[in-house]
Structures are given as C-alpha cells and as structure tokens.
Batch of 2 targets.
Target 1
Amino acid sequence: MSRHSEPFWWALFSSGGTLAALFLPVLIFLIGIAIPLGWIESPGYEKLSVLIHNLPIRIFIFLLISLSLFHWAHRFRFTLYDGLQLKHLQTLIAVLCYGGAITGTLIAGYIILMISST
Amino acid sequence: MMPENHNYSKYHPKWHRTPIPIFWWLHKWVYIKFISRELTSIAIAFFAIVLLFQVRALIEGPQAYSDLTETLNTPVSVILHSIALIMVLYHSLTWFSLAPKALVVKLGKWRIPDRVIIGLNLFAWILISFLIGWLTVTL
C-alpha cells in the first residue's frame, strides 16, 4: 500500500493521525455544526477565553493543530505520488507538503504559545 | 555482438514500464476506498486551520470572536464542516482498524489480539468525545 519509509515524518504522521482520530470528530461537530445550528449553546467568550489562557490547554491545542497538519502533509504527499502518479515531482511535492505543515506549526506556535495573558 | 566496453550506456533505453493511467484508482471499489481514506487527511488539515482561527479569535478579543462565530454560522460553513465531519469519521474508523498493525503489544509471548487494540481505541475515542461534549454543555 503506502510506503512510509522515513521514520521521522512517519512518527509525526502517526501521532497526528491518532490525535486527530480521537479529538477532531467531536470538535468538528461542536464547533462547526452543533453550536452554529443552535443545538448546543456555546460556552461564551468569557469562559472560552479563560480556557485558552490555561497553559496545558494551549500546549495541547498547539500539538493538536501541528500534528494534524503533519499528518495531512505526509499522507497527502504519498497520495499525490500514488494517486495522481506525480512521482516526477517528488521533491516539489515533499517541500510543499512538509513546508506547509512547518509553516502552519510556526504560525500556530506564534499565536498560541507566545501570547501574553491579559 | 556485445561491446567489449560494458560501461558504455549512453544510449541505453529507458526500462519499459506499463504506463499507469492517472485514474487507475477509479477502476475498482477497493481502490476508491483506499484513495478516499487517504484524502480524509484534507479534512483534518482543514479543521486544524479552523481551530487555529478559533484560537486566534479568542486571543484577539470579543469582537474577533463574534466575527468568527458569524462566519461559522453561515450555511456554507456548516455544509463544509458536515462534509469534513464525515471524512474525519471515516479517518477515525479506518485509523483504529489500522492501529493493531502499527502497535504490536506483547505480554511475554502473548500478543494482544487486534480486536482488543481496536476496542481500546474505540473506547478512548468515545470517552474523550463524551467528556469534551459534556464539558462544553456544562461549562
């Protein structure tokens, strides 16, 4: 099936996949569907703001975002190889995929970990 | 007649490989399922970015947060998230069934059976989802 030969990227891919598998479904349901449709009431800005200033939670959300991006990067890279037969664009695809994940991680790190609490 | 200089290869032709059509994966249901499974990663990246916007809005202030809430309240956003939810659910279910292949746990000589690993993952998934949902409603 898919070749996952580089251990470093594979480790990021698999931890991202596990975190995403466990946490994303309920979050998508709440944030993207249930709260907008009014099925569930949003906790409100104040409470969520308190939550986001809690360091362990910030670290966790940072990891969730970053590792999800690396999961996408590794999987999408190989999907382009095998799915679209784009093997001749190997380096470009790898750079765009992992580069995208790294960029997202840096942005997430800046936003989430470098804020000062008000 | 073989040339004596075996290093001579300037005009060696490319090895023949049967050209694979770009839409090879549409030929069989098994292939379609495979590619669909791999493409679920797009939904994961999509929502990771939504989460990032969410955190940024919370940090920036009430105005930014209510702007984001307005964006999330649109039909387009709900439809996109619904599609993403289906894809991420497919990811979760297929991921857990793959977990035993990646995670081989042995107690002495006895290897924990696949079903148990899958079951533990499913249990953790349901527990986490329930906890987050419950926290959201009761907060």
Target 2
Amino acid sequence: MRNKQLMIMSGIALVLGIIVFGPTLSNLHKVIKVNKQQKTELNKLEEKLQILEGIDKNLITDRVKKMEMVFPSDKPIVELLSSLSQLSAKHGLSFGGVSLSPGALTDEKKGETDLSDLTFSFEVGGEFNSVLKFLRELENTAPLMKIDKVGLTIKTNPLFDIITTMVAADIDVSAFYQPAPKSLGGISQPVKLLSRSEEAILSRLFNFTKFQAVLPVVQTGKTDLFDFGQ
Amino acid sequence: MEVNLFAKKIKRLRDRQRIKKLAGKILLVSMLMLALLMVALSALALRIASSNKNLEQKISLTKNKILELQDVESKQVYLVSKLGSFANLLKLQERHQAVAEAIFNMIPDGTTLQGFEVNEKGTIDLAGSVPAWSKLFELLKRIKEQTTGQLRVVQAQVNRISFGKTGAINFGINIVLSGASQ
C-alpha cells in the first residue's frame, strides 16, 4: 500500500515536472535558436558593411559611368550614330548609307543577365589608311561594337595622279547592351568583391573613346537605382 | 523477565518509518534541485533574450548603415552583373581585330573585297575581285608569305577564280588563321 502511494507521488511529481519544465525548455530552445540566427545575420551584415565601406566611392562612380557609356543598359541607337559620324569625321571619311533595325522600343521580356545586340550597317569612304584607322578605332569606341562583316572596294582614281588609295567600305557592325539588374536582392545578401583580373578588365573601360552625344533630358518623378547617368 | 511479543512487528514498523522518512527527504531534495534548475534555466533564457535584444539593435543599426551605402552597393551589383559579358565581348573583339588586321595586311591595292566573314569553324571566306593577274598573284603571294600580325595562316584554299564582264578577275579563297576560331 505504502509503495503504491510512493509510486503515485513520484508519478505526479514527474508529470508536474514535465508540465512546468516543458515550456521553460521550449522557450530556452527558441531563444537559443533566435540567438544563433541573429549572430549569423549580424556577422553577414557586418562583413557586408565592411566591404561596402572599403569601396572607393569616386572610383566606382567613374567605373559605372564609363561602363554605361561603353556597355549600356539600353539600346544605344543615338550614341552609335553620333559616335560613328564623329569618328568618320575625325578621319576625314564620308559617312552614310546607315541601315539599322532598332526593334522594339519597349522593354523586352528578357532576364537581367541577357546580353543583347543591335546589328546595323553603314558605308564609309575615303583614303585607305584613314579607313584602316577608322576600323581599328571603331572597336575601341563607346558604345562597344564588333565588326561582323567588311566589304572593301579599293580603287585608285586613274584620272588623277595621286599616291593615295581611295576606298569604299561597307561595314556590318553589332553593338551590345545589357539591361541593369532590377533589384539589389536581400539586405543580408553578400556583395561580391572584384578579383584582380576583373579589376584589370574594368580598367580597360577607360581605353574606350567616347564621343559626346546630344540627348534630350526628360525629367520624371521616379528614381531608378541603376540610372547613373552618362 | 520481560517478554516482547511485538519485537518483529516493531522492527518492521521502524524500517518502514525510516524508508518513508528517507523517501520524503529524497523527494524534498529533488524538488529543491528541480526548483533551482528551473530558476537557472529561466535566468539563462532571460539572459539570452536580453542578448537577442542587443543583437536586434545591432542588426538594425548595421542595416541602417548598409542602407546609407545603398548607392555604392547598387553600383557594385551593376558592375558585377555586367562584367562577365563585358569580358567575353572584349575577348571576342580582340580576336576580331586580329583577324581584320591580318586580312587588311594581305590585300593589295586595287582589290575589291566583297566581304570577309569568319564562320563557326574559324575559316575566313574571302571573296572579291582584282583588276589584273598581277594583283591576284600578289594577293596569293601575300597569303602564302603572310608573317605580320598576331595570327598566322595555317591553311589557304583557292575555291574559285573567274573572269568578270569588265575584265576583272573574281576570286573566292578560304583561309584558316591560327587562333581565329578560339
């Protein structure tokens, strides 16, 4: 009888213990879990802050401006025509016969990292060496272009006794652009630092020649995080 | 002489009493220990909760600082997103420049070049016309002996030579340059 009572008492004590300790232990487990998560988050944020504070604001602004000139986020139609006409004028060449298909004027449904190109053709005429210089300089002119096809007619005018070789060149060119990312991602998302080789590639941006394009300025009330101006 | 008739019974009772007392003591000590453990656990939970609050404040402060540097972050994200494509384009452009330079060095004065294209296999299809045989021979000689520039002619094949109406000689030549297809 006594043993039975003792057993019952112990059972009651155990149940009471579980009832009282259960929530306490559960609460403790919860706060420890939150603590761990917060510590991890704080570490990530501090690391990100350190990286951001270490970035030279002036240098990155210059690089972004240059990148937007050389490898723009939108179709660089106006800039292209302006650069080509000014480059041909610089080398004393005639410029004309431009044929391009700008395509859709609205934003295309493409991913953030999609590279797009704009193909067009034009003609330049003039002295052979000037055409060669033009072709060499063309691929170092902003916005970024790649010569796809060149049709070259080399003809020295027989009526005049001149040493210079006159050339007419039909050139097909692709210009490239890539939309800027639409969002920054989460605040805890780490910022990628550039490696040495990537830094070297970025420094090549400054080798590109930029001709000033006259662009209309439209004021809007919206602010685009990735609109750094040109 | 005194005879104790309940000696056994009394002993049993005493034992039971002792066990009962011991059990009571054990129960009391256990309860005390559990109470102490309860207090310790609650104190620990409170301490961690307070630490969580501090961490929360620090996180909030750091987030604010990061938000202040959002401009720098957006520029960095922008550069990183464009860098891969830009690097590939530069490589492609370098190869193209080298090919164009190699071709321009080959063609003699008076040549009309209808165009040259580099196909997927890296073969350059060179098509055009020259006003006289001497110019064609000069062109072929230059292709054969081409040494200038970064690229070398690995293989060249004349596919077509024909006379045009105006007396010009039309040609179609396939050239393979080292490294043009990489």
